[in-house]
Sequence to fold (334 residues):
Amino acid sequence: MAYIGQSPSIGNFQVCDAISVVNGQAAYTMQVSSVNVVPETANHMIVSLNGIIQKPGSSFTVSGSTITFASNLVTGDVIDFIHILGSVLDLGVPSDDTVSTAKISANAVTAAKFNADVISGQTALATEPADTDEFLVSDAGVLKRIDYSLIKGGGGLVHIKTQNITSGVASVDFAHGSSDVIFDSTYNAYKLIISDMKIATDGQKPFIKLSNDAGSSFIGSGYHVSGQARDSNGGGDTLAETGNADIKMCDDAMGNDTTASFGAEIYFHKPSTSDTTKIIHGTYGLKDQNTYFVSGYFGGTYNGSGTTIDGFQIKVGSGNITRGNFSLFGVVNS
Fold:
């Protein structure tokens, strides 16, 4: 590159601290700001003694940070200066914001140069990434970025809300907009998992009621239900009811002894649509009041025309639900 005037100097230029001559001594330590310095060679130095520039290699030699003159110096001699040129290609320490991308050679930044907290030291993402959030991947050794939308799984479950019941409640309610519950058109289907539900009163049957006012009230008529079950004693039940007050999940009454419990997986399909009936169905297992194990399936619907549903509750005929885990999920649409 051409310059107007003198070209800029390149090198790590340093002037040594003043050195006091000791009578009868030829060797002296070179320092800059009280720190020992080591020149590249004697040829990378300009040394003035008694006003005369000295010839490298014959008038003086260097070894590490020690300069040794050809003969012992005596009282009255003066080392005027020692100017260390360094490597003429040594730029020293670059000024801030002066090293551009083009100045860094390809493959120069290796894993050894990354600090251990390069990832852990960053802010953690506490929720599912947005579709446009990007990840780095190695494509046959070439680093590339990819949107989350292209790698996230389809058809999975998104956890919405879990209620852990540890003491008696009359019902377990989920209502859209209440306590972080989502139950609207966000998902086409919702899944409720009930685990280890226990009841206070023996001989009760669990059921579902729907709400169209975000849980302020629950619809008490217009349900149609069907289902079947078998028990461990070989007995069977068929559930078939119309115009019911609720969606009964089973026709076998639950027991309330210490080992009895109820578990189920229940699906709610398109609760927020207004042009179709509301379909709910699921499978369950329980220990009945006769201590038999019962497993079965059920399905139900609410026939209210043009009604959108934004909540539901789980309840038993009489008495409280005393324990259980109730987890609501959204089924990913695609």
Notes: Residues 38 and 64 are 5 Å apart (CA to CA). DSSP finds no helices and 23 strands in the chain.
